[in-house]
Amino acid sequence: MCDFHPIPELQKHGSFLENVVDILFKNVVFTTNLSKVVLWKHPEDLKKTFDFSLDQHGTSHEKLLALIKNTIKFSVKTGHLYFINQLFSGLDPYGLAGQWLTDALNASMYTYEVAPVFTLMETTVIQEVCRMVGPDWQDGMFCPGGSMANGIAIHLARFKYNKSIKHCGASGMPRLVMFTSEESHYSTHKFAAFLGIGEDNVIGVKTDDVGRIIPEDLERTIAEEQEKGGVPFMVVATMGTTVRGAFDPVEDIFVICRRHGLWLHVDAAWGGGLIFSQKHRSKLNGIERANSIVINPHKLLAVPQQCSLLLLKDKAILKQCHSKGAEYLFQKDKYYDQSYDPGDKHLQCGRKCDVFKFWLMWKAKGSSGLARHVDAILETAEYFESQIEARPDYLLVSRRQFINVCFWYMPRYLQGKTDAVKECGEQLHKVAPQIKAVMVKHGSVMIGYQPLKEFPNFFRFVSQNSALSFKDVDFILDHISEIGRAIFQ
Ligand SMILES: *Cc1c(COP(=O)(O)O)cnc(C)c1O
After folding, report:
1. Hey, which CATH number is domain 365-487, 3.40.50.880, 2.60.120.430, 3.90.1150.170, 3.40.50.300?
2. pTM higher than 0.70, yes or no?
3. 296 CB under 6 A from ligand 1?
4. pLDDT by residue (tens digit) across 340-351?
5. What Gene Ontology cellular-component terms does the record carry (predicted)?
6. CA of residue 203 to ligand 1 center, whole Å
7. Domain boundaries, the chain
8. Which residues, 6+ apart, have CB-to-CB distance to 258 below 8 Å?
């Protein structure tokens, strides 16, 4: 008999995988506060420390396991409580289990034939989220990230403006222009460039003191562009801006869009998870007015990366705009109803299964569990803000609207000084990067900073980890103060 996998081989690979899982459990899944977020090395040092080399001969399991341990050792532990550097964090056990399962099955999401459970599951989840948005919501798709989802929304909006573009291309079209807040996510500009609309035709609309679009300025810029011969076709509003967590006034923006016949896209990549919370859902009021919405479950809801949803009101448009009907994959004479194959409404061919980890987390916790998660992290943010206001060495950049708390650490010589931010902006600009560098070298806390508009560099606190307690908040702020005092005194 010809055995394709001789038993000893299977046993060897089995024990290898068991060892790997064991290493992951001990070094990634169950880490504590006491372990470091990162073991920092400069790139040149890491190149010398880590064996990146590839060669002609294979490597023994023993050496591979050592390399795996080293990979973990020098990687950032994004599940650590004190990783608050990006808009994702935490390590959800159900999410991880989901991710492991789909990786083990290595499914691809084009047809019911190769992914029967996952394609039906995808439809269920999309329909359920649509139902939560409003009665007019019909369809959607999982995308490899919010940036890509925003890009597809732009693509659909342009297709809606002129359907002939699918077959005839964009040449000969007038100069199309779109509008978004000056604090919106940069993916809008990237994809406008990618689609041949051009970055300069994404017009930045002014924001108010907390970072929301000023509707009058949207009106003004639309008129201005029309005068210059541009043809407006779309507005991208944001619910939960990346830095300040601002919510654009979507109701007002909708009225303007309706008057001018513009597609309204709501980028709720960051804020969209609020849809689960009865307590905070009202922040999303007006979202149902949009033509398309992006929600990233991999952000607020702490689903492992990537998990991003683009939702549509128009049931037919995805298929109209994207389908090609490749007959080697979507055969017309299939042995089951072809409408069960979701693949042709996507731009990708092979596609990872992002739905399962989300579905499993939702199933495990229920909608009420996801709501509790959202409410808990908002409470932590509220406490964080109150601490910034209570401590003399901190200053709030602008009022908190969501989870993002934007703040400066103020060295003693700037404390209590009126107009310190304006007058000593240059000095203040250097404070956050220096403190961050010390923290990363300690491996203690990772927290992001950035400048914005006229504001010098400031820290941004964001945590999607509902295990982060008030005590942890105190620790983080004490820690920043301690480093600040050491550097600036
Ligand atoms: C994070 C973010 C995005 C991009 O999402 P990715 O999944 O990181 O590509 C888009 N818009 C907003 C408002 C975001 O915060």
Report:
1. 3.90.1150.170
2. yes
3. yes
4. 888 889 999 999
5. cytoplasm
6. 19
7. 100-363, 365-487
8. none
